[in-house]
Design brief:
Strand content: 25-35%
Distance between the termini: 34 Å
Order of helices and strands: EHEHEEHEEEEEHEE
Radius of gyration: 20 Å
Shape: elongated
Strand order of the largest sheet: 5-6-7-8-9
Number of helices: 4
Number of domains: 2
Structural class: alpha+beta
Length: 176
């Protein structure tokens, strides 16, 4: 999972090379500001979008930055701080904790899975495979491994209130 870029000094010019493009709120970070920045190189200081120099003057040592939306000529760059009160556990969650976090639609990190809560969606991955997306009403029932089927069973139980089993590689959902 990508993390926002950490500025190593005020006005850190590496921001232009190392700032990742993220489409989700990163775990353990809190957005503190969002900047509308010219991406074309032709913007002027009188326009709404910040020029590269105007934006560079806003960069603070120790804060984190990521592109969170991209248009043809402008981008939105979010500024983050580490969130000590983040809803992510230290280390890895146990299955009971994961089930509780799924029930409450909270972010979590397990040994082989993780859940990401954004402002518009709740997604769960096993390794790097998308297993569940609330926004898209998507639940991947394909059998991959015993490990992935554990998280699929937790999703079935927590979200759909059903019991998931597999027979000859085919998923079977039963009411509780």
């Amino acid at each position: 999972m990508k993390r926002p870029y950490k500025a190593i000094k005020d006005k850190d010019e590496n921001i232009f090379k190392k700032c990742p493009n993220l489409t989700y709120n990163p775990l353990g970070f809190k957005e503190v500001k969002r900047y509308f920045v010219d991406n074309s190189g032709f913007g002027s200081e009188t326009e709404i979008a910040l020029t590269a120099n105007q934006f560079l003057n806003k960069i603070k040592k120790g804060n984190y930055y990521a592109i969170t939306s991209c248009g043809k000529f402008q981008v939105y760059v979010s500024e983050y701080v580490k969130d000590n009160q983040a809803d992510t556990p230290k280390g890895y969650s146990k299955n009971a904790e994961i089930e509780s976090r799924i029930n409450q639609r909270q972010s979590f990190k397990g040994n082989s899975c993780y859940g990401i809560k954004t402002s518009t969606d709740y997604k769960i991955f096993s390794y790097s495979t998308l297993i569940y997306s609330e926004k898209d009403n998507y639940f991947n029932l394909k059998y991959y491994s015993a490990t992935t089927s554990k998280i699929q069973r937790l999703i079935a139980l927590s979200i759909y209130k059903k019991i998931l089993s597999y027979r000859q590689g085919e998923a079977i959902l039963k009411d509780l």
